[in-house]
Amino acid sequence: MVPNSEERLKDYLANNPEAAREWSENFKLRNDPRITPIGKFLRKSSLDELPQFWNVLLGEMSLVGPRPVSRDELQMYSIHLESYLSMSPGITGPWQVSGRNNLTYEQRVAIDVDYSRQAHLRLDIKILLKTASVVLRRTGL
Prior knowledge:
Blueprint: H1 5-15, H2 17-26, H3 37-44, H4 52-57, E1 62-64, H5 81-85, E2 90-92, H6 105-118, H7 121-137
Parallel strand pairs: 1-2
Helix pairs in contact: 1-2
């Protein structure tokens, strides 16, 4: 992140109505002004996910599960919040292999809820294999 990232985001959203709409719908931006050039490379190559393996070793995350969200994003899960919170977050999951950034936040929530209802080892293995393909092809960035 760049210095004064929150101020930069606030100014950017105030001056760009389209970006403000994207932020309010998705809690992220395709062209986030807070990300450094190195950070953009790390995100595009998914290398920014590597530190999360430490969280898996500590038992705080799973390899496969719903994507971790910020406190602000929890409101998007509304009636499905309990279902979402019942699972450990994952480094990868159904959202990442189902379109990623090409999906709306509502679609992401629906995918997470479906996964929480039908999660099993075979599905996790399938998601792990699809993740490799998605990362190598840089799909849904």
